[in-house]
Amino acid sequence: MSGEANKKLKSVVCAGIVTLVLAGCATAPAAIVTNTYEFLPDESTMVYYGGWGGRFDYSIEGHFQLTVDFDAGIASFEQVDATLLGEGHLNGQSLGDLFHMTELESTYVSDAQIDFLLERDMPTFPGADIHLSLTLRDDSVHMTGSFSEPLVDGPWYDLDAVAVPEPVTLFLVGLGGLMLRRRN
Predict the structure, then answer these.
(1) What CA–CA distance (Å, rounded) separates 183 from 25?
(2) Exposed site from 27, 57, 69, 90, fewest CB < 10 Å?
C-alpha cells in the first residue's frame, strides 16, 4: 500500500472512530441519537390535491437529520434538505419548508414510532395543523404526514416517504465497528 493510500485509510478510520465515539456507539447505548437519512425517491412521494386544480404527485429527493432523546421522549429535525420533484407548481419546493419540519414538536416517542404535530394559526395557512409520523425500522424510516388548507375545497398535502441512513454514515459506523472488533 502506498504512503498516500495509507494516510487516507488512517484518516477514514479515525473519522469512523470519532463518529462512533460521538454517537455513543463505542461504549454504552446513548440516550440521544442523531442520524442523517436519505430519501429513496422511488419510495417517497408527496401528493398535492388542489381542490378544483387537480392532483399532482411529487417524488422527494434529499436528506434530513433527526435527533431523538429516548430518555426525555423528544425528537426533532435538525436539518432538512429535501426537494419535491414533479409536474406542477410545487416542483423544486423544499419539503422541509412546506411541512415546517424543523418547527415540528414531537408528541410521542417510542423505540419504533415518533409522532410530530405543529398547530398553526398563520396567515398563509390559518388552522392548518401539520401531522407527521415516523416509523423506525432496522434499516429505514417510514414517514407519513398530512395537512390541508382550511378552505372550502382547499389543497391537501399528503406525504408517504421512506428514508435510509446515508451511505457515508453506514460506512463509517461499519468501519468503526470493524476496528473495535479487530482491537479485541
Answers:
(1) 15
(2) 27
Taking the chain, what is the end-to-end CA distance rounded to the nearest angstrom?
24
Total domains in the fold of the chain = 1
Give the DSSP per-residue string, 104-148.
-EEEEE-SSEEEEEE--B-SSSBT--EEEEEEE-SS-EEEEEEEE
- Please determine, for residue 14, whether its predicted confidence score (pLDDT) is greater than 80: no
161 assigned to some structural domain: yes
91 inside domain: yes
- 102-135 pLDDT, tens digit per residue, is 999 999 999 999 999 988 765 555 567 899 999 9
Identify whether 42 is part of a domain: yes
Which CATH number do you get for residue 145? 2.40.160
Displacement of CA 100 from its chain's centroid (Å):
13
pTM: 0.71
Cell of 1: 500500500
The residue type at 121 = D
Count of all residues that appear for the chain in the document? 184
Average pLDDT of the residues in 137-157: 84
Q: Measure the CA–CA gap between 1 and 117, rounded to whole angstroms.
A: 53
